Fold these 2 entries.
Entry 1:
Amino acid sequence: MTAAIIAPSDRPVSWSLRFTLGDWNTRASVRTSEHDYLLPPDLEQQLETRHWFPPGFLAYLNHPAIEALGKTVIHRLSANHLVYFLDYTTVLEHRIVNRAVETIIHGELKVNIPPRMKTAALQLYTDEGYHALFSNSLAEQIAGVYGISLRPVMPHRITRLNTLLERTPDKHRALAWFLVGFVSETIIAKELLDVCRDDLVSSVQAMLREHLADEARHSRYFSEVFHYLWLTMNSRQRTFAARLLLDIIRIFFEVDERWLRESLYGAGIGETAVTEVLGELTSPQATLLRARSGAGATLQALKKAGFFDLPYNQQLFMKAGLIDG
Ligand SMILES: [Fe+2]
Ligand SMILES: [Fe+2]
């Protein structure tokens, strides 16, 4: 279906965006999954060859002082990381993504929301509730296996996003929420795709696969909605959005230093090794490299919406090192 909208600062634009989650009724995990997300009975055997979390994502496990401690410690650190990731996901889905989705559903963005876009947002909201449910279920089981008690109520990233949102002027607050959702939803699909590549404990792998399939739909949807909104924004909103997007993207690639330090100390890693690991992960260069490789879908969506057609935005993102000239 082709629709034409007239945006305040653009010529009439013709497009054929769909604003749907496609075959959600027959594909969404909340509608079709048959998994019980219980840890497998042969867990110990699986851990001979499989991982809790892809080692490629946890380069710090290659540090000689950590490697020297052997497989049990490596499994423990990977389990810590997975539980942290799942706890973070549970909070993110409810408190960040679904809050962002509410701005679409309940007319907070003060733009016309086509009925199909609203229906898809209601479906997406349901998906995220289910993702929180299965993420929490596995986190509890794995924390039980290892007696993991270090489970921050508020992961660093969520605190940073909340602070950013609290500091946003009221008139831009709903838009800011939407933009946080947009960045989160366009980043997560790549994140899950990478995480799914290795041989993981079977129920963890199945859960991540289902989440990934849903997120591929979400990423497309949020990109389309961003495009739609971008065309309706006036120049003040666009300037605000450009700066905020940069801040949001940066936050998504920061490391939770405090948690990681505790996780490493808790596994008996010495101070020198901990300092070395953190120094490497938290350098501005390392953060930028992670952002450049992880925010591809977000940057692509911005480009498609015409965001970089404005020289100011192009300069801003080039200066930040996120795009090349
Ligand atoms: Fe999700
Ligand atoms: Fe999602």
Note: The first strand starts at residue 3 and ends at 5.
Entry 2:
Amino acid sequence: MKELRINRIVRQTRTEGFGNRYCIWVQGCSIRCKGCANREMWDETGGEIYSVASLIEDMEQQGGQIEGITVLGGEPFEQSGGLLELVKCCKEKGYTVILFTGFFYEQLLKQPEKREILSYTDLLIDGPYMEDKRDFTRPWVGSSNQKYIFLSERYSEKDLKEIKNKLEIRISKEGGVWVNGMGNINK
Ligand code: SF4
């Protein structure tokens, strides 16, 4: 069974894609975009290792509340083996799949394993974060160069019109604060 190196999991969120989603931030990204908000997810030796089986089991324990999985990070496609197994299992179980990547769709298509991952993906959001193109007017993305690529019939461009950007703030029992979602928090 394959594994993924992960920085964080939010078991149910409505700010990282369509509907209620199980969301995974993978650990490790070599792309190094200027202005990246997740620099703590660059180090490919950080985070914790999870088996794909344990992730699927955890999803199944969410009481049927989950529409699908969203994987972001970090760079999901730099852990292609684990990612492929994860998205395959998700599809078998009827979950939708949304993936974010700092690479371009066309680059991914050239590599068989990554192309196979895309065959199990409903929506890919591609392209690096570009500080000079910073823009929070569209859902879930931080810069205007990033593209929504609909790879199945499940979702479409018109579904995006219903969605507004929002932030979720979680406070742990120990007092730690975690913010996810997208929006201009400097305003
Ligand atoms: S691809 Fe994502 S995680 Fe990687 S540097 Fe760019 S914004 Fe950060």
Note: Residues 80-92 form the longest helix (13 residues).
